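User: I'm putting together a small comparison set for a docking exercise, and I want a reference complex before I start. The sequence is below, and the ligand is zinc ion. Could you produce the 3D structure with the ligand included, as structure tokens?
Assistant: Of course. I'll restate your input first, then give the structure tokens for the complex.
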Amino acid sequence: MPLLIKNGHLIGADTEAFADLYCEGETITRIGRDLEVPPGTEVIDATGKLVFPGFIDPHTHLHLPFMGTCAKDDYVSGTQAALLGGTTTLFEMICPPRSMGAGEGYETWLAQAEGKAACDYAHHMGVTRFDAGTADELREIVKRGTASLKVFLAYQGAFGIDDTELYRTLKLARELGAMVCAHCENETLVAERARELVAAGVTGPEGHYQSRPPRVEAEGVHHLCSFAELTGASVYCVHTSCAEALSEAVAARQRGVKVSVETLIQYLLIDKTYAERPGGEGLKYVMSPPLREAANQEVLWGALRSGVVSTVASDHAPFDFYGQKLALGGEDFRNIPNGIPALEDRVNLLYSYGVKRGRMDLSQFVAAASTNAAKLFGLYPRKGSLSIGADADVVVYDPAYRGRLAAAGQRQNVDYNAFEGWEIEGRPWVVTLRGQVAVREGRFVGEVGRGRRLERAATYF
Ligand code: URP
Ligand code: ZN
Ligand code: ZN
């Protein structure tokens, strides 16, 4: 059924209007004042609401076998959680173990989504080893519409690659026109410092931070940017957490390196003291890079405003507190499954603590939570914009809503919420995915299996 969203305050990354928006089939077909209502149209009165393009999370893990366990969501729970929080498109990181080739990894991750996704999704292809067959496999994967790669300079022995593999990956990415996303931490420093800490009797979650101080991340960014400079590849630093790492990216950009930067909602809002909470509670907040000194937060907000940081992602990595984090890592921080869930709450937190606290304006909010990811990863203007011809992914947002985040009642399949009790000042009232209503007032009313895999052409030549 066609949809008319009436009397909305439409906000894009660089446009703003009071207008009606008409969606036919899967597409936005008209935008204007006092649009006619053809018979059979569902009318949504958006008076007093904000109307945004569907939000895009550029970094999630729904299927993640990691550290002896597996992240808790699947495409059913994860994509529903995404939609409830206003995210209509997510990017999933394909992270094959080193024992699995790229082609097999690709098929494995594609199969996970088959018939289960409620929102649209795309992938970044993890390159966790680079051997004789890898180049041809990656060429094929890029041809099939996955035009971005992912490398880990961390996680020695799991996903981490060595410098020869990094060099070859970046050279190939340059040739194929694919963006390379990178987890930047020096894995040798992490492993050595962790070993020293445990030998000195430090086994609690505070050891995680101490083994990965800001310089370890900054060295990773510097390292990646040197390789990008020499190969001409375009790179994207995922989950950038601190001023030191940001400075390396800015310096590289000034030298002409094509580097973009992502931060996470976690780094903007919570700090290292959370991971130091007693009684095991700190384990909930162990992720890599670790949560930082609070002073980094204002640096990151400033970098978002100035455009140095392009995107705010969730890096959603849902591991239960009891059955996973505590059970596996309670005795030794090196075994705590790394990650903090945030897919469902990313947008509401960014709105409540970014826009409402005067740290960013509405256009910056849309850019950071939607449009910039679409532009960087080849989806714009089909996604990330309210424009004629775009997919009708629309978030009608209620700025009058007040509520508190809680694990009880959340859709993401994990036994805690890292933002438990935090007040939110707004939430999606109606969310549409390609012209069909998928969320109404906090209830999922969409369709499991309707989510579509998005193919993207390579663009970074
Ligand atoms: O701690 C994190 N970030 N876990 C998820 C995997 C990754 O490094 O992105
Ligand atoms: Zn990472
Ligand atoms: Zn991640």
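The longest strand covers residues 3-11. The longest helix spans residues 214-231.
User: Thanks, that's exactly what I needed.
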